[in-house]
Amino acid sequence: MALVETVIKLWNGWEIRVLVLLSLSLQVILVAFGSKRKSTTSTWINFLVWSAYLSADWVATVALGILARSLGSNAPNQNHSLQSFWAPFLLLHLGGSDTITAYSLEDNELWLRHLVGLVFEIGVAIYVLLRSWVDGDTTISCIAIPVFIAGIIKYGERTYVLMSSSTKHFRTSSLHYVFGLHFPAENCGPDSFPLLVAIFFEKLQSLFADLIFDHHQGYRCNKLIRGLEPRVAFKMVEYELGLLYDLLYTKARLVYSCIGIFFRCITCLASVSALVTFSIIIDEHEYSPVDISITYLLLVGAVVLEVYALLMLASSDWLKLYLVARKKCSLEQVTKYKRWSRSIAKYNLVSFCLPKEATMWIKVQQLLGIYEMLEKHQNVEWQQGIDDDLKRLIFHHLHRRTEELEIYSGRISCIKLLNYRGECVLNEMKLLDELKWSTIDVEFDESILLWHFATQLCYHDYIKTTDLDSLNCSKISRCLSEYMLYLLVFCSNMLPKGIGEIRYRMACEDVFDFFKGRKGIQIEEAYQELLEGCQKLELLRSQQYSIIRNGYHLAEKLQNLSKRNWWREEKWEMMNKVWVELLTYAAGHCGWKEHGRQLAKGGELLTHVCLLMAHFGISGQYQDRKLCDGQLPTNRQLA
């Protein structure tokens, strides 16, 4: 019992100190890593930011409550007077950092809850300061006033930004971009990068708000982007999405404005003045050395975080764009920094389904019921960097398709382009009648699975007889096939609705059955057996549905193209174009909210393709001109 009482007494003495230090530590984590998640796919960084974001408000709120309770229930002493000085810092922490205000888009919708919290927490902080004043230590209360003001500003900024980024307010603020949207430069080129970003980013905000555009605006956008090189176009899209991330998940909407810069100067001066005044006026011998050390940590931490915020302001994308426009720095200097992960996730069906050796670690995972989830993620590979050939292929595909777009004929032509998912390429190559059963005659998710399996078979057959130097034409198809399967398995919300998960599991069962009892088999050996296993595959006809049997037949037909005087490179170029068409179909049918969610997870190539399509004029949000003449659209039309 004595030991328990000692521990309880020790905890009561250190409770508020531990919480205050923990609150400061969480803020440091959020400031240091809050903006990193837009340019990385690291699970650990995302988990760290997620944990800190969820814990930060709770820790600061509990600490404020304990401070109020301790001042209200105990006799006043010097330690309590100094600890009351910590209340404004907790309010400052509740205001959050400039680098992250929302972890997900849903957090923006909770701005009203933060407003109620703002009123409540300010009331508690005022109560703590008044109790300290009444208890006789007016010096500390006076020093705390500047920090208290800075805390109110920070918390108010966060609430305002959350409100502005919510769906309703974001849409309202974007309305004026649609009606009367003008393009001041008809012949912009790479030298007009800042102007192009400003023009297209203005449109991106309205796209994200699900507003509508006149077809003539799509025509003007198309003319502007046609004059760019693929490399510059992708850089511009990356820059735009980086700015959109700032609007949705940080304080950029307010910070990069005149009033925001003014507020930042006030909060910085408040922190510096509090540190200087405290170090000069306060007699450190009157208080506990531990509390003095914690107070200095809070003061120095506040100053360092404010200085860091100013440095971030000076190096922001918004300022860089201004400097490029003024020719103070080059385009290459501005665009070399990552604004998304610049990586493609790849997932291979056969590799995942190969039998694994039952190690002790696998048995533990199976016992805990987490083996399947962990195994799926462990089989995801990340390709760093987007191949320039892939960029050119996507850009020229959209360029060629929009040549067919009759921009003045209404919305029908645009919808037709959005709904191509391989049949247009096959029709051009005179293969539609032969292969349409694998594209337009099946659901989209089934088409992905069929072409993924067939592409992998063709690739592994191709590399056996080909020099490595001539493999680049096939690598694009393989990359896109594995990327689209990754989207189907891990990001199904970004693809058109269907029963893709069920079909994927059935395909896995087929592969499991094919390699049943073959533990330790290597991937190259597995594909060799699949290529030679025609008779075994035919046995799957007894099943009502078989992805790998139909995928094998698709691979056979693709391989037989070489018997029709097709060069192997021509076959792979055709397959590349089919995969790009499947990619653009998925991009055009994914909602902007889903694209916005992916910005906080390192970004997706699919999002960049979707925005590039919109700039080319390929979007369902281009409507008839009459909607933009004379009256605003109705709520149903905006939805």
Automatic annotation (TrEMBL):
**Where in the numbering of this chain does the DUF4220 domain appear?**
50-351
The highest taxon in the source lineage is Eukaryota
- What transmembrane ranges does the database entry give? 16-35, 47-72, 84-103, 110-130, 136-156, 254-282, 294-314
Q: Which InterPro entries match?
A: DUF4220, DUF594
Keyword set, alphabetical order: Membrane, Transmembrane, Transmembrane helix
State what protein this is by name.
Answer: Uncharacterized protein LOC108662402
Task: Give the source species.
Answer: Theobroma cacao
